[in-house]
Amino acid sequence: MLEKYPQKARLVFKNFPIKSHKLAQPAATAALAAGNQGKFWEYHDRVFENYNKLNEGLLEQFAQELNLDMDRFKNERLNPEITSLINRDLREGSRIGVRGTPTIFVNGKRLGQRSLEAFSAAIENELKLQKVKLRE
Question: Is the distance from CB of 59 to CB of 29 less than 8 angstroms?
Answer without folding.
Answer: no
